Amino acid sequence: MALKTTYCRLYVLITLGSMLLLIAVYHAVNIYQQMPATILAEPRTTFEVHNLNAVLEPYWNSTNGELGSMNVTDASRTLLTPISNLTVIHYGDVIKLRLDAKDINGRQRVHGGDFWKALLTNKNNGKCSVPGHVEDLGNGTYFVTFVAKCAGQSTIAIALTHTREAVRFLEREFLPLEDKTAWKGYFGTGAKSSHTMCVLHREGTWENKCEYRYKTGLGRSLLLCDKPPKQSCASLHHLVAAFPSQKAVDVASKQKALFERGPVRVAGTPMKIHIRDADQSTSIDQIPQCSSKSVEKTFHGHWFNGSWHPTNCKTQTLDIKKMKSCLRSKNIYLFGDSTLRQWFVDFCDVLKINATTIKWDTQYSNVERKEGKYTGKIRGYAIQEPNITVNFFFQSLAVTRSKYRLEDFTFPGDIIDDLVDCNHLIVVSPWAHYTFWTQEAFSEKLYYIKMALFRFKQRCPDSVVAVKGAHVREQSSWQYRIYNSDWLLHHLNLQLKETFDEEWIMFYDSWDLNLSYPGKIYIHMSPDVIREEIRLYLSYICPAELENVRTI
Model pTM? Predict the structure, then answer.
């Protein structure tokens, strides 16, 4: 009996011990799973190390109980240090440099967030130009990398476009600001006509405003107009942009000092380097042809001899006969702003469409094909046999001085949903007029475009849909460097990319192509740029066997 009791007690103790052990293991596993990856193992990426530096660096650069000053980043005092061996550089090598941001007193900046522009160029060798990639470590240090694609005596130039303080103002104050864009709304006709101010509004409250909803294009954003003195809200018939609104001017003016200077070159640049051992034309010829079957459709690359050369393939050289074969029985739909209107004009050019046959919206008569004469054109239609049509639709609520009728407003989703057949090529490019929109309003607009494209792809899974991103533009004044800043445009481009990063969408990232163009940077880029944009687009939608002597 005593022995049996002892066994029972031993069994209970073993059971309890096992249960306690299981509980301990369970908690240990949970704790282990919740531990940061940097504690579980050696850092697998430099990003983890950079985060550690961002935490530690400020303490190394601060005083304790002494007077000190910290100013904004000063490009002329910033330290540029080569990481790569610049004495021996071969064609195709990766060139890496380190930037340590300093203030006017030469003191190390302890935060990241500055916005830089970097280029590798060789004007004497095919006007070669390569965009640089800037990596922000978050602690005042930046890595700048280039691919050595400019053979011979080349130049590295790095410039500070916006300081961290300017970027923080744009991101935290200007971007979220409601009612930045204003329009004059025209009501009634004849002697009884009048106009009031209108704004795009999404958040907050209002009273006694004329409300205009465009659910399929704007979602929860509204066009709000002050009530005209004698007319009804329903009598609104035209809008003319009166940008920026006084509200935007008041907020921007307080930060004028941050944007008075344009890009400032880093001390030590332009830096001369020599890139060896390459017949540049031969190197380009050795990569495969871009085509509709290209698995990865990359838009990164470099300029050489007036052409844009993607990183991993060679653009097709289509003549008019082969291009017509590729586009036979296709309807090309272009939805965007004046930068995509340039595509429309150029498509008509390369397809040899007679200028007098181009049909613009009924508000305007036909004109000769001169770039300046197209200002204000919001709809275009052209046809080229055999059965190739090109259509252009200007985006609604544009920030432009042109006077637009409400019935001319078009939202891409409405037109795309009405497309019955599947013989369409669709390109959407919503960006140039949206730096004044809040991020939430712009995101919602993009959502409705994406859903319309998705519905079209469900109906027509083999059709190609593309979304073209934003690009840099001129920065001629402190106002331009706020309202159309490089940072805001880059932010829009990232927002577009994140929204349309889908396997069934071709996201056309034209940022590098435009940024590194060896010519004037402007909202309406050179015809050379437009031609290369279209050639790359066609290279990715046309079969490789159509390749022929280059004429576009």
Answer: 0.84
